[in-house]
């Protein structure tokens, strides 16, 4: 199993033999301190190379760039490659092989793309893809854009990418320099290509990928937290690749259980009618147990953002949000919510919002206690499903997808039914997509269950920015409460494996 690291910057320092030496050097780094030291040294080499290429003589940047392209490209790292090096090391350190490719060799500054047959060979050899590049106006650069467009236009590559793992890294000149929007736009593209998408891991609070602050040449190695987000992104993509490896050996004994959390509908339950019919049609094609929860008709109290959340460490089945009103949806349905294998966050989106009841934001806020409870839904396959009337212009599927990803899930292609005059125009395609979603859940669930028996470290919530929560967590660790809960969870996971998983 192998992850391909893709550096999408014209400033790439490594390609060809330089890419091979880059991977060899990364693999030689024994720990996080060693890899950060290596990355910092390589960025400084790149600074010296810029000086030699003409910066010291105050040459214009286009002259410097041409001079740099004449070098052997066997040392130094650009800022984008530095982020990528951190991610690839995180991936390799978690047991997945790695490879590097610099896209500037295939999508040069001038002229048409070249040597694409070789690039295709490299792409088709990988099981996961980690793309790193600079931010331009809150979006990716043209190198990454043309690469993704090229992927989409090759049927053989598109077929290969189905259910393959993807994650992204973005480099911007400042902390709020558009890194997250760049990652989000790329996430939508990769979901549409049928990939299994993840962000960064629990250590850096499970967001949208690696975010590096680096404006001037050679500065990426100074962003310690950014390097941590990139390393964590590498760990996340390694996790998905390893889960796919496990899934080749095991399968479910029973049907996958998929929860549909409907958080927006009109007074006539129009969305429910369409989605329940969709469930019926999908169930005719593949064995599945759908559980529809009409949350838009329920009472959902707002989150009050407790400084300690959840209220205490405890077992999964125990409701541990501070809101205890018996009419509250989460209080009444906690055990049903956590008893699932896959998640579809559902919404009805008509043109006329007057009779629309939405608890979307309340619902998402309240799932905070699941996220902070060591990511209850970690590695669950998840996606939005939206019945969207032509002209509704709500774009709620984008918000839903990003909310789901923050739960450390594996995000797949949003399911969107295009409605006109009460009819779903793309019904057959929507049902086909539903079948594929169920297949993903059925494939990944036994792997996730097996992995959960031994892995209770990767998804440990790290309360970055929450000093009070961190102090409480440290206290619970010191008195042994965390170890007990983790041990009990491991036993429960083992029982689930015995009951639900069988070798192929």
**CATH level 4 superfamily of the largest domain:** Flavodoxin domain
Cα shape: globular
Distance between the termini: 19 Å
Helix content range: 40-55%
Beta-strand level of the residues, as a percent range? 15-25%
CATH secondary-structure class of the largest domain: Alpha Beta
What is the count of DSSP helices, taking H or I runs of 4+ residues?
Answer: 17
Structure in words:
This protein is an alpha/beta fold and 504 residues long. The protein has 2 domains: 2-247, 3-Layer(aba) Sandwich (Rossmann fold); 251-503, Flavodoxin domain (Rossmann fold), CATH 3.40.50. Helices cover 46% and strands 17% of the residues. The protein is built from 17 helices and 18 strands. The strands form 4 sheets. Strands 1, 2, 3, 4, 5, 6 and 7 form a 7-stranded mixed β-sheet that branches. Strands 9, 11, 12, 14, 15, 16 and 17 form a 7-stranded mixed β-sheet that branches. Strands 8-18 form a two-stranded antiparallel ribbon. The protein is globular. 48% of the residues are buried.
């Amino acid at each position: 199993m192998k992850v391909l690291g893709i550096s999408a910057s014209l400033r790439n320092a490594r390609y060809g033999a330089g890419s091979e030496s880059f991977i060899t050097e990364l693999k030689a780094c024994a720990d996080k301190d060693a890899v950060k030291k290596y990355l910092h040294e390589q960025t400084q080499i790149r600074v010296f190379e810029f000086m030699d290429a003409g910066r010291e003589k105050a040459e214009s940047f286009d002259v410097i760039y041409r001079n740099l392209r004449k070098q052997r490209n066997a040392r130094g790292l650009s800022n984008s490659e530095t982020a990528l090096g951190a991610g690839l090391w995180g991936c390799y350190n978690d047991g997945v092989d790695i490879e590097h490719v610099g896209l500037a060799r295939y999508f040069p500054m001038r002229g048409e793309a070249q040597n694409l047959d070789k690039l295709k060979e490299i792409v088709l050899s990988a099981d996961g893809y980690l793309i790193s590049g600079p931010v331009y106006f809150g979006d990716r650069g043209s190198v990454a854009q043309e690469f993704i467009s090229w992927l989409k236009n090759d049927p053989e590559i598109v077929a290969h990418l189905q259910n393959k793992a993807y994650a992204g890294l973005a480099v911007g000149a400042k902390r709020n320099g558009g890194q997250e929007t760049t990652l989000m736009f790329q996430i939508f593209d990769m979901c549409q290509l049928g990939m299994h998408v993840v962000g960064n891991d629990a250590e850096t609070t499970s967001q949208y990928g690696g975010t590096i602050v680096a404006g001037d040449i050679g500065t990426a190695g100074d962003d310690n937290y950014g390097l941590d987000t990139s390393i964590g992104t590498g760990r996340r993509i390694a996790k998905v690749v390893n889960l796919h490896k496990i899934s080749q050996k095991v399968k479910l004994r029973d049907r996958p259980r998929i929860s549909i959390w409907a958080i927006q509908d009109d007074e006539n339950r129009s969305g429910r009618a369409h989605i329940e019919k969709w469930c019926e049609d999908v169930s005719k094609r593949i064995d599945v147990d759908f559980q529809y929860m009409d949350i838009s008709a329920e009472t959902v109290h707002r989150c009050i953002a407790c400084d300690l959340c959840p209220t205490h460490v405890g077992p999964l089945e125990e409701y541990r949000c501070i809101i205890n009103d018996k009419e509250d949806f989460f209080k009444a349905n906690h055990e049903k919510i956590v008893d699932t294998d896959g998640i579809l966050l559902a919404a009805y989106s008509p043109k006329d919002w007057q009779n629309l009841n939405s608890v979307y934001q309340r619902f998402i806020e309240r799932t905070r206690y699941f996220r902070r409870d060591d990511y209850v839904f970690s590695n669950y396959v998840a996606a939005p499903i939206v019945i969207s009337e032509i002209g509704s212009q709500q774009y709620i599927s984008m918000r839903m997808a990003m909310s789901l990803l923050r739960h450390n899930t594996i995000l797949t292609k949003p399911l969107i039914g295009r409605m006109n005059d009460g009819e779903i125009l793309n019904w057959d395609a929507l049902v086909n997509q539903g079948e594929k979603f169920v297949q993903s859940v059925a494939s990944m669930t036994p792997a996730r269950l097996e992995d959960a028996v031994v892995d209770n470290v990767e998804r440990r919530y790290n309360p970055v920015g929450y000093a009070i929560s961190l102090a409480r967590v440290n206290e619970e660790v010191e008195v042994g409460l965390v170890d007990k809960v983790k041990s009990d969870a491991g036993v429960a996971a083992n029982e689930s494996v015995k009951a639900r998983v069988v070798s192929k």
